[in-house]
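quick one, 198 residues, struct below
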Amino acid sequence: MNFYKFAIYLFRGFCKIFFRYEIIGAENIPKEGNLVIASNHKSNFDPVFLAASILNREIAAVAKKELFDIKILGFILKKLNVIPINRDKPDVSTVKNILKAIKNGYVLGIFPEGKRIKGNEFGDAKAGLALFAIKSKADVVPISIISNYKIFSKAVVYMGEPISLEQYYGKKLSNEEYEKISQEILDVIKDNYFKYSK
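---
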């Protein structure tokens, strides 16, 4: 068993022991094909909840590069396929690394808002989600994480149906257009969040 699989089983055990952890829609994660998963981000538990929810694929997540400044954390993140990114201005090499990861069969994990937005509020989506999905010709699975993040409370990971962005393949899009497409996906995440929070 490699380090990634070992960590995922630890994450899943943690979720089941300390939360009433429920996954809905796992069948929406295909076993193969280019794929991006996009989720709301309200807590530092979110990456753990997400990673623990997918057992049939390996995730390559995107995280702010500052996390890699902490040596031991940076080492662990690299072992978990996490790709560092400058959230304000991603460079070309980072974009290439992300697209390469998708091409190599990893599921790209991304938070469209680019940072944590606590409570029931949602932020604005960044261009990255749509850019990476369209450039790699990947479907996007919108994921809503619903929890108050208190130990022993319920945590639901709701996976919606894959969204195809095929109509945008090969088109030259502006940053504003990428943001608009990302926002449309975030709106689906938001709608499911409130729908299943009831």
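The radius of gyration is 16 Å.
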